[in-house]
Amino acid sequence: MSRYFVLMSYRPNLSSLFRIEGLSLRVYDFALPLRSQLSPIFDTIAPAEFSDSRHEFASECFRSSRLSHIRSLSVPPTHLETPIKAPAVKNALKPTKTTEKVLPENDTKNTKDALVSNTYPSRKFSVAPMMDWTTSDCRVFHRLMSRHTLLYTEMVTTGALLHNDPARFLSYHQSEHPVALQLGGSNPAELAQCAKLAEEFGYDEVNLNVGCPSDRVQNNMIGACLMAHPKLVAECLGEMQAATKIPVTVKHRLGIDDLDSFELLQAFVETVKGSGCNSFTIHARKAILQGLSPKENREVPPLIYDYVYRIKQLYPELEVIINGGIKTLDECVTHLLQVDGVMIGREAYQNPYPLLSQVDARLFDDSRPVPSRYEVAEQFIPHIEQRVANGWSLYGVVKHALGLFHGQRGGKQFRRHLSENGHKREAGVEVFREALKFVEQTETV
Ligand SMILES: Cc1cc2nc3c(=O)[nH]c(=O)nc-3n(C[C@H](O)[C@H](O)[C@H](O)COP(=O)(O)O)c2cc1C
Fold first, then answer.
1. Beta-bridge partners for 287
2. Are 372 and 403 in contact (CB under 8 A)?
3. Who's near 67: CB < 8 A, 6+ residues apart?
4. Given 110, 124, 138, 385, which residue has the most CB atoms within 10 angstroms?
5. How many Å separate Cα 440 from the centre of its chain?
6. Ligand 1 contacts CB of residue 324 (under 6 A)
7. Neighbours of 94 (CB within 10 A)
8. How far is CA 27 from CA 19, 30, 198, 228, in A?
9. Domains plus CATH for the chain?
10. 182 CB under 6 A from ligand 1?
11. CA-to-CA distance for 445 and 353, rounded, in angstroms?
12. How far is CA 334 from the centre of its chain?
């Protein structure tokens, strides 16, 4: 029979429970309601209850790691064996098959690192929110290459969340952590409700989109048009913070249309920081709301990184993340001399391996071996199988991996095979396996 130990973090924001089986430590994140149902269990536990081997094991955890700040109390197995009323809690305590497949077995270092960071989740390196691209499948795929990268969801509007079953938009895979939900909206009360939902679903951060230039969202006062309404943005962020304990952040542009001076950008930040929000992700170009498509709005207005650097210089107390046109880790290192974090969108999606497989070592001081491209593809297979078994289209899942072999021998054929055959109604995981025959098992970064 397995022995179970559960550790719970002191930090209220870190919604993680830790279950230790033998020597492997796994992280489980629970939504708030689950946590509150579990808290009575933890209240009953005191260090004195460590005994025998459990005590030894716990002490070893403390000695060998930086876990000592955790109020870490082992739950005697009886607590777990006692039937817990809420079935969700019981289920949550079981390791899910997919989590086992995605997370390496002995992932203790990663877990500890995440724990000891004072700024969990770290925004030093993130993959940008991208509609239709950074879906849950994409994030599961990205997580196979990097443990530390913060992954953003696509933007979800408050309307979509509040008028539908939120689980439809908010469900995700436990392996995705650290994961941030991006919201689109401008009604403070609705955004507050949605921020609460983000916390309940266990997201590590909730972000407000003030950068999307599409007409569709402008008509609903969502996205970049809000740059002209800093007070409203501040009100939205204030209400969101009041509604949740998870970090609330904002992603915005340098400006819009002719509201594009540095002084106006500074005035925007000055007003918005009054809400208490202290993390600003800045897409370093303005948006032109009339006449340019969203795609052109990511290419035509010039990038002015200097404006972002100057914001950081003026407000050193704020966390400033730079975004836009960044393609390599060398560029990230240069930006990190000026700002606190780098967010990458298109390059991380279209050519993920060079960035994501190296970022942990380069930026997070974590040099554990990373899987090769081929191994990443193989590790993605269980997830693909599960999705297809649940009725998802193969292409909808594997399209996020099209860029995995970018620039590699056979990479084009891999991509073409999936594009030509992945859409077929009967297409299953064998199409992905066939595509893999075009690429080599050993390759270079
Ligand atoms: C397909 C696509 C969809 C996007 N959707 C969103 C979105 O939902 N929310 C958002 O804030 N930005 C969105 N963006 C913008 C990116 O987050 C990012 O700011 C932009 O692509 C610039 O970064 P990059 O040059 O690294 O790609 C999207 C970008 C792309 C390419």
1. 256
2. no
3. 7, 61, 112, 115, 116
4. 138
5. 30
6. yes
7. 10
8. 7, 10, 19, 41
9. 4-100 (no CATH), 117-364 (3.20.20.70), 373-436 (1.20.120.1460)
10. yes
11. 7
12. 23
Residue with CA closest to ligand 1 atom 19: 283
- Kindly state if the Cβ of 298 falls inside 6 Å of ligand 1: yes
Q: Tell the residue number behind the tokens 């299953």, with chain if given.
A: 428
pLDDT tier for residue 127 given thresholds of 50, 70 and 90: very high
194 is catalytic: no
91 Cβ contact list (under 8 Å, min separation 6)? none
Q: Largest Cα–Cα distance of the chain, in whole Å?
A: 71
Rounded Cα distance, 76 and 67, in Å: 19
Which residues does residue 74 pair with via DSSP β-bridges, in sequence order?
A: none
User: Ligand 1 pocket, 325 CB below 6 A?
Assistant: yes
pLDDT digits (tens, 9 = 90+) for 424-441: 989 999 999 999 999 987
Q: How many helices (H) and strands (E) does the chain have?
A: 21, 11
Look-up: residue for tokens 């993340």?
321
pTM of structure: 0.77
Strands (E), 179-313: 179-184, 205-210, 248-252, 279-283
CA 394 to chain centre: 23
Distance CA 431, CA 10 (A): 46
Catalytic residue among 61, 138, 194, 212: 212
What are the φ and ψ backbone dihedral angles of 121, each rounded to 5 degrees? -80, 145
Residue pLDDT, tens place only, 305-348 = 999 999 999 999 999 999 999 999 999 999 999 999 999 999 99
- Atom number in ligand 1 closest to CA 326: 26
292: amino acid identity, one letter? L
> Residue 287 gets which letter from DSSP?
B
Q: Is the CB of 157 under 6 A from ligand 1?
A: no
Q: Which residues contact 60 (CB under 8 A, 6 or more apart)?
A: none
